Amino acid sequence: MIATTPVALPPKDDDRENGAVFCTAHVGDVLVTVTARAVAPIDARSVAGLVREQLDRIEAPGKAV
Asked: What is the C-alpha separation between 10 and 50, in angstroms, rounded?
């Protein structure tokens, strides 16, 4: 027998819109594509910062801080 726990979803809120940010970049032969979805407004600078950090890791794969 498998035990199940009921899941309660939050109430529907028609006033909130969803947003999305799409970023594509490459380092050498490596293509990086990021899709971020969240309740609008999305902080595009934060998403871009995350992509930049990941590109820096690809550029210097043995270098970790």
From this structure: 29
- Encode the chain (65 residues) as per-residue pLDDT tens digits: 555 666 666 667 667 788 899 999 988 888 889 999 988 888 889 999 999 988 888 877 666 55
Q: Which has the closest alpha carbon to 55: 34, 17, 25, 18? A: 25
CA angle, corner 23, sides to 41 and 36, nearest 5?
Answer: 45
Its sign, for the CA torsion 51, 55, 61, 65, is: negative
User: Letter for the amino acid at 47?
Assistant: V
What is the enclosing helix (H) or strand (E) of 33?
strand 30-39
- Strands (E) located in 1-65: 18-27, 30-39
pTM: 0.61
